[in-house]
Amino acid sequence: MCGKPISVAEADRPAWIYLGPADLLGERDVLPIVVGRQQLILLRDGGRISAAERACPHEGADLSLGRCAAGRLFCPRHLASFDLRDGSVSPGWRFRSLRLFPVVSTPDGLWLEMDEDLLLMK
Prior knowledge:
Pfam families: Rieske
Order of helices and strands: HEEEEEEEEEH
InterPro entries: Rieske_2Fe-2S, Rieske_2Fe-2S_sf
Number of helices: 2
Oligomer: single chain
Structural class: mainly beta
Domain Rieske: 16-112
Keywords: 2Fe-2S, Iron, Iron-sulfur, Metal-binding
Protein name: Rieske domain-containing protein
């Protein structure tokens, strides 16, 4: 065996990806970004910043053309909205929740937590 074996604790430790400076969003509330091969959007609602998949889970609309208000992201195609706390869709719609990914703002910039959902996205 070469090298040190990976323990369960180490395997479960999340990896972080540097997105850019803390002011990356500028004056925008929604910004398209690419992380690896994944198309995502960076979102700001008030002082909270998060990331989400870019395609609407309903029919694939480009959510970077949507808007954020009152803790929700509004799809530009059908005006369904997603709760930015958990990705759940507004009442009356029957499709899966929007995938959200944690973003942390530090003095050196914005960092995205890499998790299995992000790795498995198509």
